[in-house]
Amino acid sequence: MVQFLRSISHSFNSENKEIAFVINEKNYPYSSIEQLIRSIGILLAEKTRNEQRIGVIVDNSIEMYASVLAILLSGKTYVPIHPAHPDNKNEQIITQAGLKTVLGNAEYVKKNIFDSVTVLQPQLKPDADFEFKTDTNPQTEAYILFTSGTTGVPKGVPITYGNVDAFLNSFFEIYDDLKSGDKFLQMFDLTFDLSVMSYLAPLCIGASVHTLPNDGVKYLNIYSTLEDQQITFALMVPSMIQLLQPYFEEINLPALRYSLFCGEALLQSTVKQWKKCIPNASVWNVYGPTEATIFCTCYKLPETDVKTYNDMVCIGREMSSTQCILIDENQNEAASGHKGELCISGTQLTQGYVNNPEKNKEVFFEKNGVRFYKTGDVCLRDTDGDLSYCGRTDHQVKLQGFRVELSEIEFYAKKMTSGANSVAIVKTNAKKIDELHLFTEAADITDEQLLDLLKTKLPAYMIPQFIHRVSTFPLNANGKTDRKALSAQLPE
């Protein structure tokens, strides 16, 4: 029996009048959603008897969440498809996943994308008698998320029911005082794996899921949702609190008990100010790639002496279902005190990408009979066993023959500009020469002043050749700083 399915099936029953979802200011009790899930379950049983993977059109509706839950409680696999994403990406997802059926609201369907599949509209049937399935094989795929590929073709990451179970078991070992009265923020699209924790964890314990309004500015919606709905547990990407910084003096969230961050580097200089807004909350920096099921390491920030590397908060130690090693370029374990590429193994780890043997061979390997995934993240482990994120192998560049960590340039740029967000990018110009660009929000310092300050900390080959001022950094669909969008602003 899959533990999380049993927990969810227990929460959704006709007697449970507690709130399961709050969507666009409307409350949906567990008891009212139960019949909708059973209705969709019957629809799947009748129309997709021999199909394992079912597409779900992403929107912010109770029908979408009920569709996902019906798929899981049928022992099938959900594949989210976002209507705002490029048509060619969605077509590739449909093809790679071999989808024949998609659940979703007809108004979101684009004929040129969905011509090859059957679109089923989720509908409530009061008399639907569908039995929730909780004995699914743990090796069965629970969901497939498609991440960006370096070749432009998205990579499908299948996560099994066993992977999800391992994550949730580890999660509740750490956050063991969560209860049915807690209120969870859900700020992510279902195409982003952090959404899985944000809706599944609360449903396992009978707590409530609070999504963001459809309209308005995302980071301001987060602020109002945290405040108005008295959220007690929030997982966010760090970019959100960077955008909220101008409002820190007026933000006061005494109801918040847990403030977690994941998805990109968390800066101590920013979180130090954020902590004043959340007087009763513990702050955690958690880390994990999609391939390792949501997140797999965590670090609780102490009141003083927070561990950092170039202002980036430590990512902590492995959760109970994960093991990590650091390797050098020859796949030997890095010596103590030395940087290495972080590699992950354990029961949260995917079995490999969908129909992509070349990529599987590139990033998965065995060491002493244990299967590992190479994350591409450069880390350092201290004597306490805690890991610090130092940068990306693909953000390591060579300039004038020297290996350069772009995160180091960004660290000093932020330090010289009182914490203004800064991003360093290398782009090859028409003459095939690599140029170093620095994007910054800093407004109270000239280019010359900033360059002079950087020259006091960095060697000449790490000094940006071009500085670009931006008022607000572009974010991708997951709320992370969009480096590709910044790079696209530069001339070829």
What tags apply to this protein structure?
492 residues, alpha/beta, Rossmann fold, Luciferase, domain 3, GMP Synthetase, Chain A, domain 3, 5-stranded antiparallel beta sheet, 14 helices, 27% strand, globular
Main sheet properties:
5 strands, mixed
Quickly give the structural class.
alpha/beta
Please report the distance between the alpha carbons of the first and last residues.
56 Å
Q: How many beta-strand runs? A: 27
CATH architecture of the largest domain: 3-Layer(aba) Sandwich
As a whole number of angstroms, the C-alpha radius of gyration is 23 Å
CATH class division of the largest domain: Alpha Beta
Mean pLDDT: 90
- Total domain modules: 3
**Number of helical regions:** 14
Helix content: 25-40%
Question: Can you lay out the helices and strands and say which pair or pack?
Answer:
Blueprint: H1 3-11, E1 19-23, E2 26-29, H2 30-47, E3 53-57, H3 62-72, E4 77-81, H4 87-97, E5 101-103, H5 111-114, E6 118-120, E7 141-147, E8 155-160, H6 161-174, E9 183-186, H7 194-204, E10 208-211, H8 218-228, E11 233-236, H9 238-244, E12 258-261, H10 268-274, E13 282-287, E14 297-300, E15 308-309, E16 312-313, E17 317-318, E18 322-327, E19 340-346, H11 357-363, E20 364-367, E21 370-381, E22 387-392, E23 396-399, E24 402-405, H12 406-416, E25 422-428, E26 434-440, H13 447-455, E27 466-469, H14 483-488
Helix pairs in contact: 2-3, 8-9
